[in-house]
Amino acid sequence: MTYQAIDRYPSEHAGPKVVVVTLTTAHRTRPERLSATAETTKPRLWPGLLAAALAMAASWGAHRVWPGLPMLTVAVALGILAANVRALPAATVPGLGFAGKRLMRAGVVLLGLKLALGDIVGLGFAPVAMVIAVVVLTFFGTRWLGRRIGLPGDQPLLIATGFSICGASAVAAMNGVSDSDEEDVATSVALVTLCGSLAIVALPLLRAPLGLDAVRYGGWVGASVHDVGQVVAAGGVAGPVALHIAVVVKLMRVLLLAPIVVGTGYALRRRAARAGDTGAAGARRPALMPLFVVGFLAMVAVRSTGLLPVSVLEVAGTAQDLLLAAALFGLGSMVDLSRLVRTGWRALLLGLASWVLIAGAAYGGVLLTM
Length: 370
Known about the structure:
The chain is mostly helical. The protein has 17 helices and 2 strands.
């Protein structure tokens, strides 16, 4: 280190004297001490992953006992509950963050194995066009409404994606290109899970008053309910025909995840490029197509060949459910309910409005096309 001492009383023939004193201290740090320091500063993932694994097992057990209770809904609820009763120690934070991002992306890739293009073609032109119209209307309508009510950050984008396509997994997929704040992601996941859970109860009760037969009811559920598990729970109460239609229509919406994410990524890249042209420092250029979206499309292509045996698809489906359950527990653990109640009324308003929008658009669509 270097010290400077200035003589403030100059002689008559000289200016201020500057005396520079340099002190050098040298010491050796033992290699084992360096490695120990590096090890202690590196975040440990295993506590959080262990917590996610326990929650995943609990969610699976609850679904086995009560089949009408979607496993992923239970996982999110457990995450929110554990976070808000302060049951998660600080050591679990890195691992839960890893689960909420990395494990979610792996689950989205495996989600592609649920979708065969032949099933989509079998719907016919009119239902496919209806599903596309409902998704587009909900996505852009929710984003527009979110901006109108002044919702901050990426919440309008994330909520629009979750409600229009496939719930929490779609929120996480969009986060792959938007790189949103964790609080925005957690709030969006909480809202889409809340409204999807309400739909499990509300839609079966509305079937008779709305005069929907099994086919139209299945189409309505598939076109308006968010998560695949929630679709199964809501559609299964009306019998196998309604359940089959609901799942196929729902998977058609899942297929639209890729173009929505890629299109948003392209728009964000253009925005970042314009910001760079105007001199903004550190302009971010999001990925046009994240690798996990490529993996999702690859799995759709593999499933569409019809070459995979049923046993492989069943194992992959179980693995996907487990990965998504662990990931959703991680995302749920980021939700602060007290903060959401104090400051999140606009997000709640947007979520409810988006739910009404997609349910209304889907109902009109099935009456016209099915």
